[in-house]
Design goal:
GO terms for molecular function: dolichyl-phosphate-mannose-protein mannosyltransferase activity. The chain has 734 residues and is an all-alpha fold. 65% of the residues lie in helices and 1% in strands.
Length: 734
């Protein structure tokens, strides 16, 4: 392969650094862009993928990560998203083990480190794509485009669109996928060391194996095989696509197929095709029940009945993705639920953007195919290959995706944009020599702005409060943004402010059942029961299998004394969610209010069977049995509960009350396996004895509690009060 050094490389306004120094600078830039996210919280999707994902727990069998999806749901379940990323989940599990629990700092540090490594490896990828594969006499690969590859890698390291992948822990999937994507490509290139096109089959199998690893991190990894194939055709075999197409269209003698066969190209492409087909088949089999199902709010364009409208809106989405690469200022954690209204007519001015996008792409394609400059053709072609091919799984062309725009899917595609941008800087520097200082200042300014924007955006990702509120100015029509702001406010105790955002979410999306449910809960707590009932009734009418809304509706109806309706609502909740301990608990409360003691006990027993540490259910059983005079049974239930919850002071207090009524004043320490629990029991027993007038026993238990814990809250004050009472009684007797 005889390819010349890019003539424009030395015109790029950057100092020429050695391989080590350029890598260190790139890593440093990547680090300063996102380092301020290292001690951030778990935010947004992290709660489902990490906090609530049982596959991270060391007590869960390791084999589960190969059976469940990215979110911990079984792949065979109809509710599964079918996102099969076991190696990513495995890294989360390792983080959990090393940190001894769910401590986000370790998760964030690894994400930032991965981005630094990927940015450094991009220098090698760009060097090959810009300057080709050239080795010296010792087989060491030469970088014929040191400045261009360095600049492109800097653009990649500092691009703000990467913030979601780096600062959001769930973005680990994109980072790992990109890492093994790069390794697969570099291994494929390694096969041509020395210019031998008939490389050992071992190299191509190694590349396919790394592609499989990338797929086990995220599905997008399969696209590296397309990049490898394009590299083989365009660079290794130096095939001129324009000339080949021209010959075929003009019906002249076509390309020499025999030459392609002798070069081994067809064999390599066949192996790539067979390997990719096998991986896709295996991935399809793993999905089990077929592709995931998404709703209209996830991807409204894919539900448009008119095919033309669907195509127009897909292209509008592509133009928005391109704009995020060009001007990554308007970034948002979620682009669904009305954030991007559909284009529904030809008079919508936004139709200009898809047209502009395709004009730009056609211009780039023309330059990539028809330019007389081989360096330009090569660089622009591979820029387009890297830009388009990794984006294909998110394009809706092959299957419906579950989002409108997702910044994380641009992590790999941004490499193609950075390559084209670096070429643009080099081309302008070469042809506009009179403005070299201006170009240098512009390039430096662009890098600094990107670094500052990345640092600012990663600061947003440090907490849910800052992340959600930052989206209000970007996507004010997004109901999910308002919902998440409201939920965050409610979680922090500011329910009055939360109501405002929940109401706005429901206004923007009148069928947003989760916003209705949460708003109904707040109104219930504020005793605005009629409106709460109306909201929750609407929610279950829109989504009849919404178990949580059925339960909350039952609670409201119970408060409104609509007992029959409340009972029916509770049973509907249980019908749609078989294992629902909280619903059984609330059903038991309803039965207790109706004096249906046996039904109440059965409901609470079901709650404790489904959730053995359900303290309220245990305590209510003890109290109900106590109130109905079943003291012996109440004692048994209380002791059973303390075996499971030995530190629960409410159960201890209820049990102590039962024991006192039976005049069983002697403490059985077998039910209090730890000293703290025994100390608490002594304090509670002392209070009860004090209340019952058994002052000597109360004094003994106060003293015992204070010996175990001299700083027990309230105990010392009660003990002093008792002593004064005893002294007063002695003076009266005397």
């Amino acid at each position: 392969m005889v390819l010349s050094e890019p003539y424009w490389d030395h015109h790029i306004p950057l100092p020429k650094l050695g391989p080590l120094h350029s890598r260190l600078v790139t890593a440093f830039v990547a680090l300063i862009c996102f380092i301020n996210s290292y001690n951030g919280d778990f935010v947004f999707d992290d709660s489902e993928a990490i906090i609530n994902n049982k596959d991270l727990n060391p007590d869960t069998p390791l084999s589960n990560i190969w059976k469940n999806d990215f979110w911990g749901s079984n792949l065979s379940s109809n509710s599964s998203h079918k996102s099969y990323r076991p190696l990513t989940v495995l890294t989360f599990r390792i983080n959990y083990l090393l940190a001894g629990g769910l401590h986000p700092i370790g998760f964030h540090v690894l994400n930032v480190a991965l981005h630094c490594v990927i940015s450094v490896l991009m220098i090698d990828v760009f060097a090959i794509l810009i300057g080709s594969l050239v080795h010296d006499g010792r087989g060491v690969k030469l970088n014929l485009s040191p400045k261009a590859s360095f600049l492109a890698a800097l653009f990649f390291a500092a691009h703000p669109v990467h913030t979601e992948s780096v600062a959001g822990i769930v973005g680990r999937a994109d980072l790992l996928c990109a890492l093994f994507f790069q390794l697969s490509f570099l291994v494929y290139c390694k096969a041509f060391q020395g210019g031998d096109k008939k490389f050992p089959v071992l190299w191509i199998f190694s590349s396919i194996l790394l592609c499989a690893v990338a797929m086990l991190c995220k599905e997008q990894g399969i696209t590296v095989l397309g990049v490898n194939a394009a590299f083989d055709i365009l660079m290794v075999c130096n095939l001129d696509i324009y000339e080949l197409a021209h010959r075929l269209l003009s019906r002249r003698k076509s390309a020499d197929i025999g030459g392609l066969v002798s070069s081994g190209l067809l064999m390599r492409l066949a192996l790539l095709f067979l390997g990719g087909s096998f991986l896709l088949y295996a991935r399809w089999r793993i999905m089990g029940t077929g592709p995931p199902s998404f709703t209209e709010v996830d991807n409204p364009a894919s539900f448009a009945e008119n095919v033309i409208l669907r195509i127009v809106n897909y292209n509008y989405y592509y133009s928005l993705n391109a704009w995020l690469l060009l001007c990554p200022w308007w970034l948002c954690f979620d682009w669904s639920m009305g954030c991007v209204p559909l284009i529904k007519s030809a008079t919508d001015w936004r139709i200009v953007w898809p047209l502009l996008l395709w004009c730009c792409l056609m211009g780039l394609v023309y330059q990539a195919l028809c330019s007389q400059d081989s360096n330009k053709r090569r660089t622009l072609t591979f820029g387009l290959v890297l830009l388009v091919i990794p984006f294909l799984p998110a394009s809706n062309l092959f299957f419906r995706v579950g989002f409108v725009i997702a910044e994380r899917v641009l992590y790999l595609s941004s490499a193609g944009y950075c390559l084209i941008l670096a070429y643009t800087v080099g081309y302008c520097s070469c042809h506009w020599k009179k403005h070299k200082r201006l170009l240098k200042a512009a390039t430096l300014t662009l890098l600094c702005v990107n670094v500052a924007r990345s640092a600012q955006r990663s600061q947003h990702w440090r907490s849910e409060q800052s992340l959600f509120t930052s989206a209000l100015s970007v996507c004010p029509l997004n109901a999910k943004v308002h919902y998440n702001v409201g939920k965050n406010l409610a979680d922090r105790g500011n329910q009055s402010a939360a109501v405002k955002y929940y109401r706005e979410a429901v206004r923007l999306h009148p069928k947003y059942v989760h916003a209705m449910n949460n708003l109904g809960n707040i109104l219930k707590e504020r005793n605005e029961l009629e409106e709460a009932e109306e909201l929750l009734s609407s929610a279950v009418h829109i989504q009849p299998d919404f178990a949580a809304a059925w339960m909350n509706l039952g609670i409201v109806q119970n408060s409104l004394k609509k007992f029959d309706k409340a009972e029916q609502s509770y049973w509907n909740a249980i019908r749609f969610r078989k294992k629902y301990p909280d619903c059984y608990y609330n059903l038991g409360r309803l039965y207790a209010d109706l004096n249906r003691s046996i039904d109440a006990l059965n409901a609470w027993r079901n709650a404790t069977m489904l959730k053995p540490d359900h303290s309220l259910a245990w305590n209510n059983m003890v109290i109900l049995l106590d109130n109905t005079g079943n003291l012996a049974q109440a004692e048994l239930i209380g002791k059973e509960a303390l075996k499971i919850l030995p530190k629960d002071h409410t159960i201890m207090f209820s049990l102590a009350n039962v024991l006192g009524k039976q005049e069983k004043y002697k403490v059985n320490t077998n039910f209090f396996p730890c000293s703290a629990a025994f100390c608490l029991f002594c304090a509670l027993a002392a209070v009860l004895y004090h209340r019952w007038g058994k002052l000597d026993l109360a004094k003994r238990h106060y003293e015992l509690s204070l010996r175990l814990d001299p700083n027990a809250p309230g105990t010392k004050e009660n003990y002093n009060m008792l002593k004064r009472k005893l002294e007063q009684r002695q003076r009266t007797v005397g």
